Automatic annotation (TrEMBL):
Record flagged with keyword Transferase: yes
InterPro entries hit by this protein: Acyl_CoA_acyltransferase, GNAT_dom
Record key words, sorted: Transferase
Keyword Lipid biosynthesis on entry: no
Protein name: Putative acetyltransferase
Classification via SUPFAM superfamilies: Acyl-CoA N-acyltransferases (Nat)
TM regions (residue ranges): none
A GO term for molecular function: acyltransferase activity, transferring groups other than amino-acyl groups
Domain N-acetyltransferase stretches: 6-151
Length: 151
């Protein structure tokens, strides 16, 4: 599929449910397998994607293909707070198109979970460099995060 089939645009209020569902699938696919069952239970109880989207929807961008939301990112003052491709759309060019847009819009820094080797390799292939790491938590479970910058 070509990049021209992917439209990156500002999120609209009508995208809220689609973004929440996308982020939920992303968490379950990419992060949950690396966490203990307590983190899963805390995630189910807290439903953090709900509040995140409700608060930051106006700052989010979405990638759309054929009228379907297939990705999202949240950029604030050079910090790429989130970038997610729907699990079924990985490898179809959505991430590349969103990263090009985020970089063009000023993305210079991001945090990525150390266990997310696929994302780390993707960012590195685009010229992002791992500059530091720190202890973090994901739903109460200790994890390591890697700070990357685009130099």
């Amino acid at each position: 599929m070509s990049d021209s089939e992917i439209l990156v645009r500002h999120a609209r209020s009508s995208d809220s449910a689609d973004i929440k569902a996308l982020l939920d699938r992303s968490w379950r696919t990419h992060w949950a397998p690396h966490l203990d069952m307590g983190a899963w239970a805390r995630y189910e109880a807290a439903r953090p994607v709900e509040a995140y989207v409700d608060v930051y929807l106006g700052a989010m961008m979405v990638a759309e293909r054929g009228g379907v939301v297939v990705g999202m990112y949240h950029l604030d003052d050079g910090m790429l707070h989130a970038i997610h491709v729907d699990s079924w759309a990985i490898g179809t060019g959505v991430g590349t198109v969103m990263m090009k847009e985020a970089e063009r819009a000023g993305a210079r820094r991001l945090d990525v979970r150390a266990f997310n080797a696929r994302a780390r390799a993707f960012y590195a292939s685009r010229g992002w460099v791992e500059i530091d790491e720190h202890e973090d938590t994901e739903m109460g479970t200790p994890v390591r995060s890697i700070i990357m910058e685009r130099l």
